[in-house]
Each structure stands twice: as C-alpha cells, then as structure tokens.
Design brief:
The mean pLDDT is about 90. By secondary structure, this protein is of the alpha+beta class. The protein has one domain. A hairpin with a 4-residue loop joins strand 5 and strand 6.
C-alpha cells in the first residue's frame, strides 16, 4: 500500500482529452507524486473492443491500467483504493492510501467525482463507500 499526503485535487472533464478526470497529487506542481483516474466522456466501438470501455488508473510514475479497483473507501480525510492483483502488478503497488489535506468542499467534490467515475462502469469496485 502506497501512502501519499494529498495537497492538490482536480475533478472534472478535460474536453481536449475526451475524458472525465479525478487527479490526486502530493503537491500542485509538475513533479508531483499521485494518481489520476480517468474515463472517456464518449466511448466508441474501438474502446470496447480493446477493453478500454472502463475507467483507467494513471500513475504519476508512468504505468496505466484499465479497471482494477476492487475497493474504494472515502471517509473524511482518508481515501483508500485496493487494487486487483493484475493492477497491482502493472502499477507496482497493491493500493493507495491517501491522506487528504483538503477542505470539506474539495472532499465533497472528490466524492462526487469518484461516484461519476465508477458508477455503471465495467469493473466497478465491489466496495464503494463515499463519505466526504
């Protein structure tokens, strides 16, 4: 489990990437450590054929994995993501525990963003608790 203190969070659509994104980083600069969770705003047949018709995890150190979150629990200042064995192998981490150094409004926005990302997706987490 990788532990990261989060000081920067961004939630919303990025039209130029055709993606809805939740980004969590330890600081708001380009050399930050963190994770992005993305899903396409508009899927096409090619996405489905390639298994890319779900959310993807993008690690700040490079790897990307489609799906893979078995559990997502947001409670107050803590967000825990437990990953599948396959996702853990690709991302080189069994999961993430984020200590959220964010205000209540940012945590609420994060909860809404995670609900938007995971709801109805193939490979939706088996456990999804969002209590900001």
């Amino acid at each position: 489990m990788q532990h990261i203190e989060i000081h920067a969070c961004s939630v919303g659509p990025l039209e130029d990437l055709n993606a809805f994104v939740v980004a969590l980083y330890d600081r708001p600069d380009e050399s930050a450590v963190g994770l992005e969770i993305q899903k396409s705003i508009e899927l096409d047949e090619q996405d489905s054929a390639m298994g890319m018709d779900t959310y993807c995890l993008v690690s700040s150190h490079g790897p990307t994995f489609y799906g893979g979150v078995e559990s997502c629990v947001l409670r107050n200042e803590r967000l825990t993501l437990k990953l599948s064995a396959e996702a853990a192998c690709v991302l080189e981490v069994g999961g993430y525990e984020f200590h959220l150094m964010l205000g209540p409004k940012e945590r609420q926005l994060l909860a809404l963003g995670l609900a938007e990302l995971f709801h109805g997706m193939p490979q939706e987490p088996g456990e999804l608790i969002l209590e900001a």
